[in-house]
Protein backbone atom coordinates (compact mmCIF):
# COMPACT_ATOMS: atom_id res chain seq x y z
CA UNK A 1 0.00 0.00 0.00
CA UNK A 2 1.30 3.47 -0.88
CA UNK A 3 1.95 5.98 1.90
CA UNK A 4 0.05 9.26 2.22
CA UNK A 5 1.79 12.28 0.70
CA UNK A 6 -0.82 14.62 2.22
CA UNK A 7 -2.77 14.07 5.42
CA UNK A 8 -5.57 16.40 6.50
CA UNK A 9 -7.02 15.92 9.97
CA UNK A 10 -10.12 17.62 11.34
CA UNK A 11 -9.68 20.74 9.21
CA UNK A 12 -12.04 23.60 9.98
CA UNK A 13 -12.12 26.68 7.74
CA UNK A 14 -14.38 29.55 8.77
CA UNK A 15 -14.77 33.28 8.26
CA UNK A 16 -17.09 36.01 9.48
CA UNK A 17 -19.70 37.67 7.28
CA UNK A 18 -22.55 40.11 7.89
CA UNK A 19 -24.88 37.09 8.14
CA UNK A 20 -22.72 35.17 10.60
CA UNK A 21 -19.78 32.78 10.63
CA UNK A 22 -19.46 30.67 7.47
CA UNK A 23 -18.11 27.19 8.17
CA UNK A 24 -16.80 26.47 4.70
CA UNK A 25 -15.00 23.28 5.77
CA UNK A 26 -16.13 21.47 8.90
CA UNK A 27 -14.02 18.63 10.29
CA UNK A 28 -12.45 17.54 6.99
CA UNK A 29 -10.21 14.49 7.27
CA UNK A 30 -8.69 12.71 4.28
CA UNK A 31 -5.40 11.70 2.74
CA UNK A 32 -3.85 11.71 -0.72
CA UNK A 33 -1.45 8.84 -1.28
CA UNK A 34 1.80 8.67 -3.22
CA UNK A 35 1.10 8.42 -6.95
CA UNK A 36 -2.67 8.58 -6.39
CA UNK A 37 -5.39 10.57 -8.12
CA UNK A 38 -8.06 11.53 -5.60
CA UNK A 39 -11.23 13.06 -6.99
CA UNK A 40 -12.99 15.54 -4.69
CA UNK A 41 -16.54 16.00 -5.94
CA UNK A 42 -19.66 17.88 -4.89
CA UNK A 43 -22.08 20.59 -5.96
CA UNK A 44 -21.02 24.20 -6.42
CA UNK A 45 -20.80 25.94 -3.05
CA UNK A 46 -20.04 22.85 -0.97
CA UNK A 47 -16.52 24.00 0.00
CA UNK A 48 -14.31 22.15 -2.50
CA UNK A 49 -12.42 25.19 -3.80
CA UNK A 50 -11.99 26.54 -0.26
CA UNK A 51 -10.44 23.23 0.76
CA UNK A 52 -7.97 23.27 -2.14
CA UNK A 53 -6.89 26.83 -1.35
CA UNK A 54 -6.66 26.08 2.39
CA UNK A 55 -4.05 23.41 1.73
CA UNK A 56 -1.71 26.06 0.32
CA UNK A 57 -2.95 28.84 2.63
CA UNK A 58 -4.18 30.92 -0.28
CA UNK A 59 -7.21 32.23 1.60
CA UNK A 60 -7.64 35.69 3.09
CA UNK A 61 -5.85 36.46 6.34
CA UNK A 62 -9.27 36.88 7.94
CA UNK A 63 -10.07 33.20 7.39
CA UNK A 64 -9.62 30.98 10.45
CA UNK A 65 -7.86 27.65 9.88
CA UNK A 66 -7.88 24.91 12.52
CA UNK A 67 -6.71 21.31 12.37
CA UNK A 68 -3.74 19.66 10.67
CA UNK A 69 -2.45 19.74 7.10
CA UNK A 70 0.71 17.64 6.81
CA UNK A 71 2.68 17.19 3.59
CA UNK A 72 5.44 14.58 3.79
CA UNK A 73 5.99 15.32 7.46
CA UNK A 74 5.78 19.12 7.13
CA UNK A 75 3.01 20.83 9.09
CA UNK A 76 1.85 23.37 6.52
CA UNK A 77 -0.15 25.44 8.99
CA UNK A 78 2.97 26.04 11.12
CA UNK A 79 5.18 27.35 8.30
CA UNK A 80 6.06 31.08 8.34
CA UNK A 81 4.68 32.92 5.30
CA UNK A 82 8.18 33.39 3.84
CA UNK A 83 8.74 29.63 3.82
CA UNK A 84 5.22 29.07 2.58
CA UNK A 85 5.89 31.15 -0.52
CA UNK A 86 8.79 28.86 -1.38
CA UNK A 87 6.68 25.81 -0.60
CA UNK A 88 3.90 26.76 -3.03
CA UNK A 89 4.58 25.43 -6.49
CA UNK A 90 7.76 23.66 -5.41
CA UNK A 91 6.18 20.98 -3.22
CA UNK A 92 2.50 21.42 -4.03
CA UNK A 93 1.35 22.96 -7.31
CA UNK A 94 -2.11 24.34 -7.97
CA UNK A 95 -4.26 25.02 -11.01
CA UNK A 96 -6.94 27.53 -10.09
CA UNK A 97 -10.20 27.58 -12.03
CA UNK A 98 -10.92 30.25 -14.62
CA UNK A 99 -7.44 30.78 -16.15
CA UNK A 100 -8.53 33.93 -17.97
CA UNK A 101 -8.94 35.56 -14.56
CA UNK A 102 -5.86 33.97 -12.96
CA UNK A 103 -3.31 34.80 -15.65
CA UNK A 104 -1.84 38.29 -15.86
CA UNK A 105 -3.25 39.88 -19.05
CA UNK A 106 -0.24 42.18 -19.57
CA UNK A 107 2.43 39.45 -19.39
CA UNK A 108 3.04 36.84 -22.08
CA UNK A 109 2.33 33.20 -21.28
CA UNK A 110 6.01 32.33 -21.58
CA UNK A 111 7.08 35.09 -19.20
CA UNK A 112 4.57 33.99 -16.58
CA UNK A 113 6.03 30.49 -16.64
CA UNK A 114 9.61 31.79 -16.77
CA UNK A 115 9.05 33.89 -13.63
CA UNK A 116 8.44 30.68 -11.70
CA UNK A 117 11.92 29.41 -12.56
CA UNK A 118 13.54 32.75 -11.82
CA UNK A 119 11.91 33.02 -8.39
CA UNK A 120 12.16 29.41 -7.21
CA UNK A 121 15.25 28.18 -9.05
CA UNK A 122 17.26 31.41 -9.35
CA UNK A 123 17.67 30.95 -13.12
CA UNK A 124 18.81 33.70 -15.44
CA UNK A 125 16.37 35.24 -17.90
CA UNK A 126 17.44 33.26 -20.98
CA UNK A 127 17.57 29.93 -19.17
CA UNK A 128 14.15 30.54 -17.60
CA UNK A 129 12.65 31.44 -20.98
CA UNK A 130 14.07 28.27 -22.48
CA UNK A 131 12.51 26.19 -19.69
CA UNK A 132 9.21 28.00 -20.21
CA UNK A 133 9.28 27.06 -23.90
CA UNK A 134 9.95 23.44 -22.99
CA UNK A 135 6.97 23.41 -20.62
CA UNK A 136 4.71 24.83 -23.32
CA UNK A 137 5.85 22.10 -25.70
CA UNK A 138 5.19 19.52 -22.98
CA UNK A 139 1.54 20.56 -22.72
CA UNK A 140 1.03 20.68 -26.49
CA UNK A 141 1.66 24.36 -27.25
CA UNK A 142 4.39 25.42 -29.65
CA UNK A 143 7.25 27.24 -27.93
CA UNK A 144 6.92 29.82 -30.72
CA UNK A 145 3.82 31.06 -28.90
CA UNK A 146 5.66 31.89 -25.66
CA UNK A 147 5.42 35.59 -26.46
CA UNK A 148 1.65 35.45 -26.97
CA UNK A 149 -0.63 37.00 -24.36
CA UNK A 150 -3.51 35.22 -22.59
CA UNK A 151 -6.18 36.86 -24.76
CA UNK A 152 -4.58 35.27 -27.83
CA UNK A 153 -5.28 31.74 -26.59
CA UNK A 154 -8.49 29.72 -26.71
CA UNK A 155 -10.05 28.37 -23.51
CA UNK A 156 -8.47 24.96 -24.01
CA UNK A 157 -5.06 26.49 -24.69
CA UNK A 158 -5.33 28.65 -21.57
CA UNK A 159 -5.95 25.52 -19.54
CA UNK A 160 -2.81 24.00 -21.06
CA UNK A 161 -0.87 27.09 -19.94
CA UNK A 162 -2.27 26.56 -16.43
CA UNK A 163 -1.11 22.94 -16.54
CA UNK A 164 2.38 24.14 -17.50
CA UNK A 165 2.38 26.59 -14.57
CA UNK A 166 1.09 24.01 -12.09
CA UNK A 167 3.67 21.39 -13.08
CA UNK A 168 6.61 23.71 -13.86
CA UNK A 169 8.56 22.77 -10.71
CA UNK A 170 7.59 19.07 -10.81
CA UNK A 171 5.67 19.20 -7.49
CA UNK A 172 4.90 16.00 -5.63
CA UNK A 173 1.24 16.96 -5.45
CA UNK A 174 -0.88 18.94 -7.90
CA UNK A 175 -4.24 20.44 -6.93
CA UNK A 176 -6.40 20.91 -10.03
CA UNK A 177 -9.49 23.01 -9.25
CA UNK A 178 -12.22 22.50 -11.88
CA UNK A 179 -9.60 22.16 -14.67
CA UNK A 180 -12.23 21.41 -17.33
CA UNK A 181 -14.89 23.95 -16.35
CA UNK A 182 -16.48 25.68 -19.36
CA UNK A 183 -14.82 23.44 -21.94
CA UNK A 184 -16.59 21.37 -24.58
CA UNK A 185 -16.65 17.59 -24.17
CA UNK A 186 -13.73 16.80 -26.49
CA UNK A 187 -11.49 19.53 -25.10
CA UNK A 188 -12.45 18.58 -21.55
CA UNK A 189 -11.25 15.02 -22.02
CA UNK A 190 -8.05 16.18 -23.76
CA UNK A 191 -7.14 18.50 -20.87
CA UNK A 192 -8.05 15.95 -18.21
CA UNK A 193 -6.05 13.20 -19.87
CA UNK A 194 -3.12 15.60 -20.37
CA UNK A 195 -3.04 16.43 -16.66
CA UNK A 196 -3.37 12.80 -15.58
CA UNK A 197 -0.75 11.66 -18.09
CA UNK A 198 1.83 14.19 -16.89
CA UNK A 199 1.10 13.49 -13.22
CA UNK A 200 1.46 9.76 -13.79
CA UNK A 201 4.69 10.31 -15.76
CA UNK A 202 6.20 12.20 -12.81
CA UNK A 203 4.83 9.64 -10.34
CA UNK A 204 3.23 12.57 -8.56
CA UNK A 205 -0.17 12.76 -6.85
CA UNK A 206 -3.25 14.68 -7.96
CA UNK A 207 -6.17 16.17 -6.05
CA UNK A 208 -8.80 16.61 -8.76
CA UNK A 209 -11.42 19.08 -7.49
CA UNK A 210 -14.51 18.90 -9.68
CA UNK A 211 -18.30 18.83 -9.78
CA UNK A 212 -18.03 16.45 -12.74
CA UNK A 213 -18.67 13.01 -11.25
CA UNK A 214 -18.32 11.31 -14.61
CA UNK A 215 -14.85 12.79 -15.10
CA UNK A 216 -13.78 11.73 -11.60
CA UNK A 217 -15.15 8.25 -12.26
CA UNK A 218 -13.05 7.95 -15.41
CA UNK A 219 -9.76 9.25 -14.02
CA UNK A 220 -9.56 8.96 -10.24
CA UNK A 221 -8.25 6.07 -8.16
CA UNK A 222 -10.41 7.09 -5.21
CA UNK A 223 -13.26 9.55 -4.80
CA UNK A 224 -14.16 11.77 -1.85
CA UNK A 225 -17.67 13.25 -1.88
CA UNK A 226 -18.26 16.60 -0.16
CA UNK A 227 -21.58 18.06 0.91
CA UNK A 228 -22.19 21.31 2.82
CA UNK A 229 -18.60 21.56 4.03
CA UNK A 230 -18.31 17.92 5.11
CA UNK A 231 -16.94 14.74 3.57
CA UNK A 232 -19.80 12.25 3.30
CA UNK A 233 -18.08 9.38 1.49
CA UNK A 234 -14.59 8.21 0.51
CA UNK A 235 -13.81 5.06 -1.40
CA UNK A 236 -12.31 3.46 -4.48
CA UNK A 237 -13.67 5.19 -7.57
CA UNK A 238 -15.17 2.09 -9.13
CA UNK A 239 -16.91 1.16 -5.86
CA UNK A 240 -18.30 4.64 -5.23
CA UNK A 241 -19.62 4.79 -8.80
CA UNK A 242 -21.04 1.27 -9.01
CA UNK A 243 -22.39 1.06 -5.45
CA UNK A 244 -22.67 4.48 -3.77
CA UNK A 245 -22.80 4.24 0.00
CA UNK A 246 -24.37 7.64 0.73
CA UNK A 247 -27.79 8.82 -0.55
CA UNK A 248 -26.22 12.09 -1.75
CA UNK A 249 -23.71 10.23 -3.94
CA UNK A 250 -26.56 8.19 -5.40
CA UNK A 251 -28.55 11.35 -6.15
CA UNK A 252 -25.51 12.91 -7.84
CA UNK A 253 -25.24 9.88 -10.11
CA UNK A 254 -28.92 10.23 -11.04
CA UNK A 255 -28.23 13.82 -12.13
CA UNK A 256 -25.89 12.75 -14.95
CA UNK A 257 -27.27 13.32 -18.49
CA UNK A 258 -27.04 9.65 -19.40
CA UNK A 259 -28.55 8.45 -16.14
CA UNK A 260 -31.83 10.33 -16.02
CA UNK A 261 -30.74 13.96 -15.70
CA UNK A 262 -32.68 14.16 -12.46
CA UNK A 263 -31.57 17.19 -10.47
CA UNK A 264 -30.91 16.70 -6.76
CA UNK A 265 -34.09 17.90 -5.03
CA UNK A 266 -34.10 20.88 -2.69
CA UNK A 267 -31.50 23.56 -2.12
CA UNK A 268 -27.91 23.51 -0.89
CA UNK A 269 -28.03 24.48 2.81
CA UNK A 270 -26.47 27.64 4.20
CA UNK A 271 -22.97 27.16 5.58
CA UNK A 272 -23.81 29.82 8.19
CA UNK A 273 -26.62 27.78 9.71
CA UNK A 274 -26.54 24.21 8.34
CA UNK A 275 -29.35 21.78 9.23
CA UNK A 276 -29.20 19.91 12.51
CA UNK A 277 -28.37 16.22 12.46
CA UNK A 278 -27.34 14.94 9.04
CA UNK A 279 -26.86 17.95 6.77
CA UNK A 280 -28.36 16.13 3.83
CA UNK A 281 -31.55 14.98 5.57
CA UNK A 282 -33.83 17.82 4.27
CA UNK A 283 -33.15 16.65 0.69
CA UNK A 284 -32.81 12.91 1.33
CA UNK A 285 -35.52 10.48 0.29
CA UNK A 286 -34.08 7.85 2.68
CA UNK A 287 -34.32 9.96 5.83
CA UNK A 288 -35.98 8.83 9.03
CA UNK A 289 -36.62 10.56 12.35
CA UNK A 290 -33.12 10.27 13.81
CA UNK A 291 -31.54 11.90 10.75
CA UNK A 292 -32.69 15.35 11.89
CA UNK A 293 -31.34 14.79 15.41
CA UNK A 294 -28.08 12.86 15.14
CA UNK A 295 -25.08 14.15 13.24
CA UNK A 296 -23.43 11.02 11.80
CA UNK A 297 -19.68 10.52 11.94
CA UNK A 298 -17.51 9.59 8.98
CA UNK A 299 -16.94 5.93 9.77
CA UNK A 300 -14.99 3.20 8.03
CA UNK A 301 -17.02 0.13 7.11
CA UNK A 302 -15.91 -3.48 6.70
CA UNK A 303 -15.11 -2.88 3.04
CA UNK A 304 -12.69 -0.04 3.84
CA UNK A 305 -14.99 2.73 2.64
CA UNK A 306 -15.72 5.83 4.73
CA UNK A 307 -19.39 6.86 4.88
CA UNK A 308 -21.19 9.54 6.90
CA UNK A 309 -24.74 8.15 7.15
CA UNK A 310 -26.85 6.56 9.87
CA UNK A 311 -28.08 4.01 7.35
CA UNK A 312 -24.59 2.84 6.40
CA UNK A 313 -24.22 0.80 9.59
CA UNK A 314 -26.38 -1.48 11.65
CA UNK A 315 -26.56 0.65 14.76
CA UNK A 316 -27.53 4.13 15.80
CA UNK A 317 -28.93 5.88 18.85
CA UNK A 318 -30.29 9.37 19.43
CA UNK A 319 -28.07 12.15 20.62
CA UNK A 320 -30.54 13.21 23.30
CA UNK A 321 -30.78 9.81 24.93
CA UNK A 322 -27.38 8.35 25.74
CA UNK A 323 -29.04 5.47 27.58
CA UNK A 324 -31.63 4.75 24.91
CA UNK A 325 -31.63 1.27 23.36
CA UNK A 326 -29.70 0.85 20.13
CA UNK A 327 -32.01 0.17 17.21
CA UNK A 328 -31.02 -1.69 14.07
CA UNK A 329 -31.61 -0.08 10.68
CA UNK A 330 -31.21 -1.53 7.19
CA UNK A 331 -28.09 -0.45 5.30
CA UNK A 332 -28.70 2.08 2.50
CA UNK A 333 -28.12 0.86 -1.03
CA UNK A 334 -29.09 1.80 -4.56
CA UNK A 335 -31.10 -0.62 -6.67
CA UNK A 336 -29.56 -2.73 -9.43
CA UNK A 337 -30.61 -0.19 -12.03
CA UNK A 338 -28.52 2.39 -10.17
CA UNK A 339 -25.22 0.70 -11.10
CA UNK A 340 -23.08 2.81 -13.45
CA UNK A 341 -19.93 2.24 -15.44
CA UNK A 342 -17.76 4.86 -17.17
Automatic annotation (TrEMBL):
CDD domains per record: ABC_NikE_OppD_transporters (cd03257)
Residues that span the membrane, as ranges: none
Top enzyme class: translocase
Keyword set, alphabetical order: ATP-binding, Cell membrane, Ion transport, Membrane, Nucleotide-binding, Translocase, Transport
Record-level GO cellular component terms: plasma membrane
Highest taxon above the source species: Archaea
Reactions catalysed: Ni(2+)(out) + ATP + H2O = Ni(2+)(in) + ADP + phosphate + H(+)
Compartments where located: Cell membrane
Signal peptide boundaries: none
Membrane topology per record: Peripheral membrane protein
GO terms of molecular function: ABC-type nickel transporter activity; ATP binding; ATP hydrolysis activity
Domain (ABC transporter) ranges: 8-253
Cross-referenced Pfam families: ABC_tran (PF00005), oligo_HPY (PF08352)
BP GO annotations: peptide transport
InterPro entries assigned to the protein according to its UniProt record, in alphabetical order: AAA+_ATPase, ABC_Ni/Peptide_Import, ABC_transporter-like_ATP-bd, ABC_transporter-like_CS, Oligopep_ABC_C, P-loop_NTPase
EC number: 7.2.2.11
NCBIfam families the UniProt entry points to: oligo_HPY (TIGR01727)
The protein's assembly and partners: The complex is composed of two ATP-binding proteins (NikD and NikE), two transmembrane proteins (NikB and NikC) and a solute-binding protein (NikA).
Protein name according to UniProt: Nickel import system ATP-binding protein NikD
Gene name of the encoded protein: dppD
Amino acid sequence: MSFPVLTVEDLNVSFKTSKGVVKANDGISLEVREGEILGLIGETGCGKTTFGKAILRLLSGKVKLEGKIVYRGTDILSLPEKEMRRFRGKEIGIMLQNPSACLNPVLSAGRQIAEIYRYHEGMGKKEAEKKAGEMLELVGISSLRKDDYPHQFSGGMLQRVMVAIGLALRPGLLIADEPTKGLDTDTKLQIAELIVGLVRKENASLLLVTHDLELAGRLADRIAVMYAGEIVEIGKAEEVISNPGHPYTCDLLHSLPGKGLKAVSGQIPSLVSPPSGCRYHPRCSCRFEACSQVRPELLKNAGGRFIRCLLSGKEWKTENAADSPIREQPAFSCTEEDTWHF
